[in-house]
Structure formats: structure tokens, C-alpha cells
Amino acid sequence: MEMVAFYPGCAAKGASKELYESTVAVSEELGIPLVELPQFSCCGAGVLEEVKDILDIVVNARNLALAEREGFKTIVTVCSTCLLVLKRTKYHLDNDDDLKEKVNNLLEKEGLEYKGEVDVKHFHWFLLDEFGEDELRRRVKKPLQSLKVYPYYGCHTVRPYEILGYEPSENPQSLERLIRAVGAQPVSGERRLECCGFHAFWPNPNGSMILTGLNLKDAKLCGADCIVTPCPLCHMNLDANQGRALKEVGESFSIPVLHVPQLLGLALGIEPKRLGLHRNIVPVNC
Amino acid sequence: MERREVTFRIKRFNPKKDVRPYYQEYKLTVPRGMTILEALQFIKDEIDPTLAFRAFCRSAICGSCAIKVNGFPKLACKTQVFTELDKFKTSLLTLEPLDNMEVIRDLIVDWDGAFERMKELKPYLIPDPKVVPDTLDEETRVYPEELKKYDKFTDCILCTSCYSICTATQIDEGYGGPFQLARLYRFAVDKRDGLKEERAKIGYAYDMWNCVRCEKCADVCPKHVGPVDAIMRLRGISIDIGLKDNPGARHVLAFYKSLMESGLLNEVLLPLRAKGIKGVLENLPVGIKMILKGKAHSPIMKPISEHESLIKLMKAAMEVE
Ligand code: SF4
Ligand code: SF4
Ligand code: FES
């Protein structure tokens, strides 16, 4: 398999270490050659756009150009917001020649050029594209039979479709496909595409917690045994802030929240420790 | 021509007669190319004249026909039945009135609240006497580069689709709203406007920092307006004019600082930087749990490789006109 540039994002390098660990473990198991570039910077989580829009573009054009410089065709990320920010940068540069020229003039001074040859994918899209469900199913050693999993997409792997373009934003199915591939059963919840409020956590913590609480409640209502999400930021709200969020909506239960590679890793027979499951705040019994 | 049997499950409600809303099903044979609006019109003409919906231009211009199709706002006149059937792999389409607004009847909602809110935000040009002449003999030229700043935000047709699904609107009554705030931004960067950057203060007063960046408004807009993009820029303007001492702005500046220091986000210092001691205290219980689980990194971070080059680029970007 061709080498892919791994863009873990700051959450996976920091407070969501278990996402980093499980991504590496799953990639080793499946033989995916991930190469993390030590030059990659934080994408700014869309926040840099609020400092100045061109700043956001330049910082991320640099990330894209670094991958191109090292000859990569694909960047794989495990964070939904990093995904959107990188793809949005690519979208703007690829559709606006003036902007591309302006940005390349700056990059040139640092020995870089954005050509537009590198693609950006979320890890779980990459898995589905590279292996397909059937191949993944064949690799599964411990099917997670009878496990009911709530596929929580959140926002930035599905919206806006114009920029992400992987699957219809009104009815994405990638997580359901993965859940089935590991032998588990996806439950269909009304709030799987709703926001967790993470990006307004600082200005509006209560609002953010209400949204997360409602999402958790929906998962419970659907009879889910656990939630799986492709985003470490959603994970932070759903897992680390679970108690606070549930209190905000007058509930008090607990439901484990797994990162996509943690779920897949369990089915591939990887020991829980390598998947960082001991780091999840809500305990995962496996 | 391909035809399909389709069931339309339509939410009905007449507040004068019905205690609560109910769903009514209509089955019809739909040819390829038929729009949802044509299907509605067919039902009204041939099956049930009591069905109420709103439409006018039939050309995606007037913004009056927006309804929910299988849960998502769409212009009925722009949306083909087959496209939606294929997307949802179904032969049943559920049509409902838009959310976040009261139902007048069936698929018709009351726009007043949404438009009142827009009016409060002063969505019109307040001419700057230094730029706009007060006689009709002269004109104010707007050059293409100037127009580019707000061009796409002038394409809004007030269909209220974005407003109807806006997450911030759902949880915060004081929130300005997506298309409303986009209009505000549109004038904030118009050189003819007298208030200009000062308009960011209006956005601030109308909770623009509570936008959760769910991107729904960008996703559903039939005119590709992308209100959230305007909101992000309006926030940027508010910081530029000095509205810096609030969690939203401080969070932004914390990111900038982190990137300058190491190139990566310093998550450990974020609560302090975004909200001061209050932020630390509020998040202490969760923070302790995270430390015990080995989730916290050292507050001093090792810079990325070629960090110097990132700093130079960031500084250069800040200089760009
Ligand atoms: S911004 Fe788009 S979705 Fe919102 S009201 Fe205007 S046209 Fe409709
Ligand atoms: S991105 Fe912001 S304005 Fe747009 S729908 Fe979401 S919360 Fe509302
Ligand atoms: S009828 Fe005018 S926009 Fe659809």
C-alpha cells in the first residue's frame, strides 16, 4: 500500500492520546503505512479564520504543501474539524487562482508550493475506500456480535457537502458500514447528525452541554450499548464531559464512547491497552 | 419516461380546526424530473384542495417554498423528487414545515419572528456621507475586489432554511440567526456603509460567539451563501475593533499564541487563556479526571520542526492586504 501522510491533529496528540494510540495500532494491524510529518502544525480548528481569513488559508496551505513536498498523494486525519479545515483550504485554493497565486508567493519564500495534488481523507473514509466492508469483515477476529452501536457523526465529516463531498450530508452511511463490518449493529438515532456544541464551549458552556446531553440521551433512548464517533472533539464532550452534560438535561446514566479505531481495534483482536481504552473517562468494559 | 410510485407523507395542521398536527399520505406516480413543488401542486389540484403550501416564482428566486423534505430544508421548486428518493433509498418522502418557526397552516410557517430579528440587526445601508454623495449626479463606484468581500452574502433570498435548522437559534433565544448575521457582515465590509466595523458590536450583542459552527446553514443554503463564513469574519472584525475581553475572542487569541509558541495547540493552557481562573475552576473536576487517565500533556510544548518557517508565514499572512 502506498504511504500516506498522517495528520493526527492536536487533540489526538494531546488530550485524546487514546485516539492516536488506537489509530497507530489499527494501522499496524492492517498494514497501513502512516507517516506523521514532524513539520505539520495545528490547523487552527477554524479559529484562525477569526483572526484573519488568509491566515487560516496560509497555515493550512503550508500543511498541504509539506505533504506534497514529501511526495504524498493522501493526507489522512482522525479529527473531523482538522478534516474540514484542510479540505476547505484545498477547496478555496483549487477554485480561486488569484488566491492560490497569492498564497504560493508566500509559500515560495519558505521553499514550498501548493500544487493541488494531495487529497485529504478522514481515517474511516480511507479504511472503507482502501479495504471495503467485505475485506474489513474478513480481517475481523472478534466480531462484536450483538453490540448495539450509535453512529454519532457530529458535523465536520458531513457538512458542508460542497466541501467534504464524501457522502450525502442528509444521509451518510459510512459509520453504519463500519459498524456492520465489525459485526455489530448500528442503531438509528435522530441526533446522529446533530452538533455536540464543542466549538461554542467557551462562550456558552451550558448551551454546549445541553446539546451533548441531548445527543447522549438519544443514544440511550435507541438502546445503544455504546457510541462511536469519528471526531476527538465530539468525543471530548460526549465522554469527558458526559456527567456534566447529562446533568444539564436532567439525566444520570453512563454510556461508553469509542473512537472509530478503538471500535475497529477491538474487533481486530487488538488488546484494549494498545487502543488506549483505559484512558476513556467513561469506562469501557471489554 | 421513467415513472415511480411515490408516497408523500405530509404533515398537516390547521390551528383553527386541529388539536394537534397529523400526517396524511398521498400516493402518486411521479415522472423523472418532477419537482417536489410540482408534486404538491398536483396533489392540491387533483387530490386534496385543502392542502396549504407557499410558492411563487418556481425558479429558486423568491425563497417562499422552503419546506423540510425527509428532515432537511429544501426549496420545493428546486428539488427533484427522484434525487431525494435516491439519496434516501426510499419510495416515501416526508414533507414537513420548517422548524424554529410557528406553523400557520400545513407547510406554511410564520416568518415574522425571523424577519423581525433581521430588522433589529439593521440590514440596510446607512450611507457614509464621506463616501456616498448626496446628489444623484454623482455615483459611488464599488470595484470588483471590494465587491468580492461580500458578494456571495448578497445572494440570500430569505428562504429561512438556514434559520430553521440553526443549532444556535435552537438553544439561544438571543442569537441573531444565520442569514441575519450574514446580512450584518455584508454591510460591515461595504465601504459605502456608515457604521462599517462598528456593526460587529451588533453581532456581539446578538450572541454571535454562540454560533457552534455546525455548518448546517452552509450545507442547506440553496444559494451557497454560507452564513457561518460571514459570522466567522464578523467575529474577526469584533476582535479588530477591540472587543477582546470575552471567552470567544480570548479563545481565538489563545490559538494564535499557541501556534506562534510551538505550532501546536496548547490544550492544557486553553481554559486559563480562554476564560481565566474561572475557566480553570469550572473545568477542574473534568481536568483532574483527565490527568488521572493520562490525557494531559506538559504545559510546555516542544515546537514542531521548521517552526521558524511557520512563524514567518503567519507574520507574512498578517501583513497581506
Ligand atoms: S442564507 Fe441561504 S438558506 Fe439562509 S435564508 Fe438566505 S438563501 Fe435561505
Ligand atoms: S454554523 Fe452557526 S449560524 Fe450556522 S447553523 Fe450552525 S450554529 Fe447556526
Ligand atoms: S417558489 Fe420561489 S423559491 Fe421556490
TrEMBL record, chain A:
Keyword Oxidoreductase: yes
GO terms, molecular function: oxidoreductase activity
Keyword vocabulary terms for this entry: Oxidoreductase
Protein name stated in the entry: Succinate dehydrogenase / fumarate reductase cytochrome b subunit
Domain (Cysteine-rich) ranges: 4-87, 152-239
Top-level taxonomic group: Bacteria
The keyword Oxidoreductase appears for this protein: yes
Family annotation (InterPro entries): Cys_rich_dom (IPR004017), HdrB/HdrD_reductase (IPR051278)
Family annotation (Pfam families): CCG
UniProtKB/TrEMBL annotation, chain B:
Cofactor note: Binds 1 [4Fe-4S] cluster.
CDD domains on file: fer2
Gene3D superfamilies cross-referenced by the UniProt entry: 3.10.20.30, Alpha-helical ferredoxin
Pathway this chain belongs to: Carbohydrate metabolism; tricarboxylic acid cycle; fumarate from succinate (bacterial route): step 1/1
Domain 2Fe-2S ferredoxin-type: 4-98
BP terms from Gene Ontology: respiratory electron transport chain; tricarboxylic acid cycle
GO molecular function terms noted in the UniProt entry: 2 iron, 2 sulfur cluster binding; 3 iron, 4 sulfur cluster binding; 4 iron, 4 sulfur cluster binding; electron transfer activity; metal ion binding; succinate dehydrogenase (quinone) activity
Pfam family, one: Fer4_8
Known cofactor(s): [4Fe-4S] cluster; [3Fe-4S] cluster; [2Fe-2S] cluster
Domain 4Fe-4S ferredoxin-type residue range list: 202-231
E.C. number(s) listed in UniProt: 1.3.5.1
InterPro entries reported for this sequence: 2Fe-2S_ferredoxin-like_sf, 2Fe-2S_ferredoxin-type, 2Fe2S_fd_BS, 4Fe4S_Fe-S-bd, 4Fe4S_Fe_S_CS, Beta-grasp_dom_sf, Helical_ferredxn, SDH/FRD_Iron-Sulfur
Catalysed reaction equations from the record: a menaquinone + succinate = a menaquinol + fumarate
Keywords: 2Fe-2S, 3Fe-4S, 4Fe-4S, Iron, Iron-sulfur, Metal-binding, Oxidoreductase, Tricarboxylic acid cycle
Record has Oxidoreductase as a keyword: yes
Family per record: Belongs to the succinate dehydrogenase/fumarate reductase iron-sulfur protein family.
Name assigned to this protein: Fumarate reductase iron-sulfur subunit
Organism name: Thermovibrio guaymasensis
